Fold each of these.
Amino acid sequence: MKRFITIILFGMMLMLSACGGAGASTPEASAKNWIEALFKADGTTLRANMCRQQSLALTDDLIGQLAQGLSQAGSALDLSGLTYAYNGAGQVVIGGMVKITIAGQTLERSLADLGLNMIPVVEEDNGWKVCLSLGG
């Protein structure tokens, strides 16, 4: 079960990393908004908190695939245990644990397990935006 959850979450992260508006006022808020939107398949909030180049690449089809994956997993996620701290070097460090409940079973996972514990951010359009490294 834990392996299944890890695979689903990792797949969602990869779909989005292959991929306007004013950004958040702090790097931590941008990363928090982006993470929460990722796990809700909220394309509007994802795009608003991503750097321009990546937000343009985030298609409605990708959002639909993400929403479908979340729905098929049949899980409930509790992100309230996450912490966000800007390291001053263009990255927000995410600590804490995500609580995942599937079929009445709850387990906790670190976003480090998914490679999402350090989120790159940039200042763009009068705010902070998540801007993932898409290079190999």
Amino acid sequence: MEDWKLHAILHIVIPIIIFVLSFLYIQELSLLERFLAVFLGALIPDIDHLIYLKYIKFRSFREFLLFNIKSDRYRRGFLLFHNIPFMTILSISIPIVMFFDLFSALFLLSFFIHLIYDFFEDRILIRTTSHWKFGK
């Protein structure tokens, strides 16, 4: 299986696993709240890839998606969420937020797991995570 297909599949499967596991640990959220928290948390981290729409002209949305999935060029630029300082902030915030708002905690957890997956994927596929530093 091509790396980009595995990437796409795992970005769907991981939120499903989080969604299912959330039923074991969080009873206070409705089905809709749980769904929104998990799937928005898994989707929003990739919003920072949209910056490339400003700099590169794509013929279609599919071409843009394939660029983000297949190319490592986007990883070399600055991405607001895909960096170690942001992940550190999330890892500190999640336990604190959990005491006040379970929806937000589940959202942040899903967000964080998405970034962890991307980090290890970069480590394995392109064999570097130097672009995860804040700044150059």
